[in-house]
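Hi U.,

Before I forget, here's the chain from the pilot set. I'm dumping it here mostly so it's searchable later in email.
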Amino acid sequence: MKINTLKVAVIGALMVPLTAIHAEEVAPAEDSGFSFSANVGLFSDYIWRGQSQTQRQPALQGGFDVEHSSGFYAGVWASNVEWTTAGSTSAMNENSVEVDVYAGFGFDVGPVYADIGVLQYLYPGHDNPSAATKAETDATEVYAGLGHDFGFVDISGYAYYLVSTDGWNFAEADGTVYYSLDGSIPVGDTPLTVDLHVGYFDFDGTGNSAYDYTDWKVNVDYAFNDNYSMGAFYTDTDQGEAQSKYNNENCFDETFGVYLSASF
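Structure:
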């Protein structure tokens, strides 16, 4: 999932104040401190931590977020997926969507911004009783991150820690950690932004460490205005197909993709 964490990857909230038609007759509304936003995107492939989640097929994604001036935020996000039902060792018999629910708190620590929260992955449908592990596909992570905007580049680092016993059909995998390092570079005064990413998935649990891998990504985004953008990306991993837990069709191979997105 592309989580919309506060200050780091959140799509800008659009606040709509209550404005009186005759200001001299109506007292101004008190600011509640809350703002709301929505986002939607069409992607040529849904890549999550270097892996195709849609078997190299397009994905329609979107979500809603609420943010408070105190730093609290919460949201829900969804995308179509196909990895859960791919191949004879599929994790689920019936599933076509991923729904993520998350909440967190962002705050400043001197010149550094910090972010902590919890993220729940949900895959509605029916598990495959013939799956090798019989493990749950749903997963729960807690995360923490730090970052700093240097002006010419905004750098952030995150750690996502699996607290559920199972996750993504990995049994007894609690303690699994995903580390990410990201940089966002504006290209002068142009509408272009270059985003760089590297991550490492460190699986815990008996036999799960065989699936550890590193992923990386380069994304170029062109913003038409404050609401609409398009982009292209390249992503790859160091995990071979033989390491894949599922019969995903080239799910770890290098990928070039494009997208259109909007936020309101």
